[in-house]
Write a structure and sequence with these properties.
disordered C terminus, 20% strand, 2 domains, two-stranded antiparallel sheet, 41% helix, rod-shaped, 7 strands, alpha+beta
């Protein structure tokens, strides 16, 4: 009858259980994350969930312990020490990997509401009460949006976004000093000479 030393059994169990659960955690990260969010359970270290870090430590502790008993012929405290070192290394590597993955994820897509209050450039003239086009930079890229205003705004003007209108925006003309120098001249309904009757 084959007998397995208790310390080897513990190390093998740690390696199998820790590694298996770590795999499940990585594969089903979104599902488990949603469950934890629903239960208001959230532990992380530097933006990395505590669960995969703990499981990587357990798994590598088991691997390190097996290596110590089977290859280095260490037992008891010596094997446990090797297991702890291996677990710490595994935890550190996993932390680095998850940190890189988090950084490589795209930034949160902005919503049109996030852009209210920002300035934009009129690329296609905006007739009063109708839609034209504005251009602006957001999240490091140039975007075009439909925009409407209460008054006519010529192409080349700089406007401020005041609200959301469907998939576009409502805008208003900035102060006169904010109009781009290459904007076409605007016609004012009342000129200097006829601003007042008689």
């Amino acid at each position: 009858m084959i007998t397995i030393p208790i310390e080897d059994a513990i190390f093998v169990l740690c390696a199998l259980v820790g590694g298996g659960l770590l795999l499940v955690t990585v594969v089903f990260d979104d599902i488990l994350g949603g469950i934890f969010d629903a239960l208001h359970i959230g532990f992380d270290i530097g933006g990395v969930s505590l669960m995969p870090l703990a499981l990587s430590f357990v798994a590598m502790f088991g691997v390190g312990g097996i290596f110590a008993t089977q290859v280095l012929d260490l037992h008891a405290a010596g094997a446990a020490a090797i297991g702890v070192v291996a677990g710490a290394i595994g935890l550190g590597l996993n932390y680095g990997l998850f940190t890189l993955l988090r950084r490589s994820e795209g930034t949160r897509p902005f919503s049109t509401g996030d852009l209210v209050g920002r300035e934009a450039f009129v690329s296609v003239a905006i007739p009063a009460g109708r839609f034209g086009t504005i251009t602006m930079r957001a999240e490091g890229q140039t975007h075009e949006f439909a925009a409407t205003a209460a008054v006519e705004i010529p192409a080349g003007a700089t406007v401020r976004i005041t609200g959301v209108a469907g998939s576009g925006f409502t805008v208003e003309l900035r102060a006169a000093s904010g109009v781009a120098s290459d904007a076409p001249p605007t016609e004012h309904p009342s000129e200097q000479g006829d601003s007042h009757a008689g």
